[in-house]
Amino acid sequence: MSGYLEIRDLQVRFGRATILQGIDLNVLGAPLSVVGRNGMGKTTMCSALMGMVPASGSAKLDGKEVLGLGTGRVARSGIALVPQGRRMFPSLSVHEHLVLVAQKGDPAWTIDRVYETFPRLAERRRNGGDQLSGGEQQMLAISRALLMNPKLVIMDEPSEGLAPVIVDHLIEVLRNITTEGMGLLLIEQNLRVATSVSEQVAIMVTGKIAATVNSVELAADRDMQNRYLGVSHGH
Amino acid sequence: MSLQFILTVTLNGLTLAALYFIVASGFSLIFGLMRTVNMAHGALYMVGAYIGFAVFDPIYGSAWSSYAWPIAIVAGIVAVAVLGVVMQVVFLGWMQGQELRQALVTIGLSIIFADQLLANFGGSPFQFFAPDLLFGPVQVPGIGRYPVFRLFQVGLAIAVGVGLWLLLNKTRLGIMVRAGVDDRQMLAACGVNVPLVAATVFALGAALAGLGGVIGATAQPMALGVDARFLLISLVVVIVGGMGSIGGTALGAILIGLAEQWGQVFFPTYSVILTFVIMAAVLAIRPQGLMGRKVA
Q1: Looking at residue B294, what is its pLDDT?
Q2: Could you report the predicted ipTM of this complex, rounded to two decimals?
Q3: DSSP chain B
Q4: Domain span including residue A196
């Protein structure tokens, strides 16, 4: 088992504004969801972990520091990102997205396996990355991350903008991924997705982790939801 | 105006366009991935010719005479590719995204390159002798005798264009380059070593300038000062055709090559203006270039 991520005192400042004021989080052998309202710093945390924005503190993947490495080296050390807004490459076809990240040798995830898992992508292999529906784009963004055969996947709001039936499919896919020993740090606004995928849910409020609670408790506790998340129930 | 005359001027325009395409495609490639307006591209063209000639001269006239030209081509390409990598790694890589700064730095570098050539090689013009196979005239239907080297130039430009197209569309490096044009940060997040890709692309773009230099100095005598001309040509060609598109660069090169040759027929004194009239018209009607994509 690998993919242990230990985040200590992660801080991000833009000028005089402090966006992240010391995040402590552990992803230890089980998926972890982070929920919170808009503007609480969830996406900034993803960017900081990937080396896309300057940050201080520490983030260790299986004991090795990844903070300050630069995005390419963070990715090569075993962290894959499914970014907010999917960030497809409009110039590439579906198949080219997969070729870009596919690894040599005999890894767990291959292009063939992606096409078996997501037959819809196989049908659309020649289409451009920006000609897909929102759900298809999300499948491609997840496939792009899986093909890197990372130790840990960070997903930033994968359910955003998806129809409810697609969200059900997404939950199923995320559950299957995590049974294979790949770590998962899931950032979500959709409480139903967060609580269905992970047993533990961390709640982020203004750049800090306010509490880490059990999914079942959070799903049942309307007061806690209102306090931390406003009206953001699963829809 | 006879048909033979029309055909000859047109063919002259196309062979000139071929040279412009080879040089400008390198310029366009570098801009496409890195958004770097490499103002030293004309200087790289000139360096390619001078280094090529420094290697060519001692070999030509020796027992290895017939190999002199191909060796000069390789020398020009390799020297300028290495120079391009040094430029990218030492100067331009760490000012990524600061276009104005990069433009000023590359202007500075191009002045240094030109002065170094003057200091080391003197100011006399020189010209390569093409190998026997590509030397002399050949019969072209409708035109008569025509320099075979200038036809070779067209073939080489087509080979460069097809090669670039295959590289960008059929290889993993090409996929990386196109993905990098879309979103460099996300490309890095895919585990790709973006600085290495950037250095490779810079080497390739510079190498095309070096190749162009040796080819250009075989077709016509080479002298100091051509750097400014070829930088200007590269700029105009990619502005007309559309930045970062191979087809657009080809179209731009053909338009400018033909305009220069026909311009000299109709108004020899002011022919250079025609080039800029075309550029101004394209900028007014289709600012992204004839085959360029709109920038969001």
Answers
A1: 63
A2: 0.92
A3: --HHHHHHHHHHHHHHHHHHHHHHHHHHHHHHHH----TTHHHHHHHHHHHHHHHHHHHTTSTTGGGHHHHHHHHHHHHHHHHHHHIIIIIIGGGTT-HHHHHHHHHHHHHHHHHHHHHHH-S--B-PPPPGGG-SEEEETTTEEEEHHHHHHHHHHHHHHHHHHHHHHHSHHHHHHHHHHH-HHHHHHTT--HHHHHHHHHHHHHHHHHHHHHHHHHHS-B-TTHHHHHHHHHHHHHHHH-TT-HHHHHHHHHHHHHHHHHHHHH-GGGHHHHHHHHHHHHHHH-TT-TTPPPP-
A4: 5-229
